[in-house]
Amino acid sequence: MSRPGRDDAPDRLYTVTQGRSSSGRDNPFDLVTLVVAECEPRPGMQSEHTAILRLTEAPTAVVEIAAELRLPVSITKILLADLHAAGRVSARHPYTAAVPDPDILEQVLVGLRNL
Amino acid sequence: MDSAISDARTPASAPDRTPLGAAADNGLKIVVVGGFGVGKTTMVRSVSEIRPLNTEETMTQAGEAVDDISEVRGKSATTVAFDFGRISLDARNVLYLFGAPGQERFWFLWDRLFSGTLGAVVLVDTRRIDDSWYAIDRLEHHGTPFIVACNDFGGPEHSPEAVREALDLDPRVPLVSCDARSRESSKQVLITLVEHLRARYGGHAAPPRQEFV
Known about the structure:
B: alpha/beta, 26% strand, DUF742 (chain A), DUF742 domain-containing protein (chain A)
């Protein structure tokens, strides 16, 4: 840890996730899954969990959480999966389909034209 | 390149966070792909309701996001940074716009990060058209519908036909000019993309070859 720079990051990440492996393919969180806190932070909680619960008082995308916490997306997903398993956050996953719903596309167009 | 983006990072305690409405429940993705300096971040900033944020993903050279954090300690992992902005379309739909580097290592992460993406904008600097070939090839490979937008850098005009020919672009792929600094112009680029998607999925156009991958 004496050298500055990127070498710091792995050690921090290792600690944050308690050394567990990264979000696998079974992790349901998408970059744009909207996460909502279902409880207040509690004393003694891991600081990243506390930060996530504060950030997600309003719906907040996984990618925004990662950016605010300055953590890689895959690490953020692990933290979110923990909180989700404990019932502390809920997840609004994106509507996905092989072919986009025409109604959604229309809503996107209307929204963009109203910008 | 990464350091230039990192400078724009917002502190975790940024007071200017703009929360989404409580009813927001459907996140959507559009990716702006292009080479270094082509204006991806500029375009994202032009239309975003938040100051563009930056984040990163780490992957091994085998093309997987890191499955064991200890791998990061070795030389087998690399980090790809990308920035993004946000557009609230209505009470429920939120569009996230990602500026993504077009370099080779980035594409290993495409499926993991950008599966389910509505479509992509390939942002082109007509002085460096060659930079865009690889991005177009990869988007076709991944079956992601896209349009091409030429960012106007005030250089000599290139006719759309010349650019189309230089890129060997499928005639069904829309090609537009834009000024990424302009909100209105960038908005029009996004509208062109979504209209293209609507035509493609609505059956008004023959299925582009990108569908067969």
